[in-house]
Amino acid sequence: MIPFNTISAIEPAGMNAIILYFHDLPLLEANKSCQRWTAALDAVSPEWLAALLPSYDSLVISFHPELIDSHGVYRFIHDLKTSEHGANPQGREHTIPVWYGAKGADDLHLVGEHTGLSSEEVISLHSGKTYRVFAVGFAPGFAYLGELDDKLACPRLSSPRQHVPQGAVAIADRQTAIYPAESPGGWHLLGLTPVPMFNAKEARSLLNVGDLVTYVPISEQEFKEAQHGR
Question: Is 212 exposed, middle or buried (0-12, 13-18, 19+ CB in 10 A)?
Fold first, then answer.
């Protein structure tokens, strides 16, 4: 299948899916293009469409093979005008309070050892910019945000933890994220937020692809007051 438009490659993924890649674009533009195609397909919702799985710079299109084959999907998306059926959805803006250095979520010293930065510098750099939600996955409500300042880039832990607390704010490579529930994890932890990331009753995530997030430092007392106020 020959790529076109902003799509750099198209590959089959088993008998009932294809993957669109946007690798030739800078990451931000690739993610925006991925969102445009996701929005366009979601807007028209052809009967053969089973699921859309967008990521940083790729989109998996799953289809019902009894209704269409991969070449039929290719022809459909080739004729689809993304500008007519779905522009980039306007993401919401979020301010997320963080108790940096919280007990049970404090790898500031480890990040400092890797980056050569003081804890104060780590906090200042992490909370000093606005991040974009590039993808949601791993667990319900787990959003991948980017991109971190180069000075903060850290590899994942060599041995993942068995228990990362709910609300842990973390970094890995040039990404940052918040653990929506207690789970295993291999990212460096910077602190805790009292803000719930996932509403299980409504099966709804706070953060969605395209949203913008800014972290704001708070004290331990402010963290506890926010927890009690929920």
Answer: middle
